[in-house]
Amino acid sequence: MSITTFANRRPRFPVRPRFGRKTTAAGAMAVILLASAGFAQARPAPDSFADLVEDVSPAVVNIATTSQPESGQRTPERSGPEGHNFRSPLPEGHPFNDFFEKFLEPRQFGNRPDQPPTPRQRVSGAGSGFIVDAEGYIVTNSHVVNNAEKIEITLRDGRSFDAELIGQDPKTDLALLKIETDMPLPFVAFGNSDQTRVGDWVLTVGNPFGLGGSVTAGIISARGRDLPGGTLIDFLQIDAPINPGNSGGPAFNSASQVIGVNTAIFSPNGGNVGIGFAIPSNLAASVIEDLRDDGQVNRSWLGVQIQGVTDDIAKGFGLEQPTGALVAAVEDGSPAAAAGLLRGDVILEWGDIEIGSVSDLPRAVAFTPVGKTLNVEVWRAKKHETLAVTTAAPPSEEALADLQEPPSGGAEHKLDETGITLSNLTSDLRKRYSVKETTNGALVVEIEPGSEAEEKGLRPGDVILSVGLDPVSSVEELSVEIEKLREEEVTVVTLGLQRADRESFVALRLGHA
In CA terms, which of 225, 272, 428, 485 is 20 to 30 Å from 394? Predict the structure, then answer.
């Protein structure tokens, strides 16, 4: 489901918040963010946030989980208060592992250093969530409930319920829960996160470090943050103080609408340093709608490896500016291959979505309906071309591995300007650098220290597959292509590389340009 179409049609969840009877008992652990969304002019800071807190608090909940750790589960640890160690809640191979390595929000506590380990001990987790439907549907983070055997919801008035996991989406770190009650519950609605602006006020209410309801205020510090493991998410960054225990809580604008879901903090010491991240509501609303329909999220697949376009690559490809997503490889049998996309194409537009950077394409593709045909504008051989691409559902992991076999496939030569020494591939060199027999090209055997090639990240074992878009299978062929560029007074050469099973492009200067 497209985020754009979802934002423009009538959602299943109401646009305005509605609440049941007021409650007074404190007990919810939640994050509530306030941002002035949808207003042409910024609003001044209010004298008090108390009315807003009273309005939305009944719809935020505390989530407690109990689980049995899997054998061999990876649990990287970080030091925490009172001698505890914080551990990542995610199993090995989870797509958000990199995210938590650098932006770790602790969820589970290990043993104290002076206590012996207790193997396979049941572990407890805590987080926040918010009710989006009077029937008891609750949104939280996927990592809060991941692998949970039991999920318990506690409302602000102190009532507790066992929750059912309707579905979760690790790629966006979102989950949908359901509790059963005999009366309507207070709930809140999604707003339009696209209308939030940097500098809008933010209010948070949560349960940091288990201290109970705490309120802090700040602003939206940045938009469109890319974080490790979160390639499908343009995170909102906030400076309102939040801490471990706030995950899964809602972010509200001044109209009491949810404009984000808190996911993580950046912290070198396990506590707040004024940098927190929230999933924008337009993305969250689309994912939650899919989860409510059938418990899963259906995404499209293109079948390309991509990389960013640097200034040098743009110059080498004849682009006026570094923009778009550069296709480094096309998988056989993929929608990209069927549409005629080629290695070296720069994707500039996906339907009516402009691809300004490499991170824009995965998001645009993922939230395009499966089976939809749309026009894709590419930059190829220094001119614009339009291709018709029909998306497909991603193949299984086994099928995808079969599709990702690399394409099929001495003397030494040094490119003095770049600092690269090259050699033809021999059996011994293939064995030394683990280059497959099906790979042909010129092997990088030495990089001069301090050279441009070293600065650009090249290293021995890389295989140069092409000069520009012209394939080369030997040092001799590469030398001929480079000499042609020198005669044409070309100042930047773009080389196609392969490292292990990953292909990419790099641009290097020729001569002293």
Answer: 225
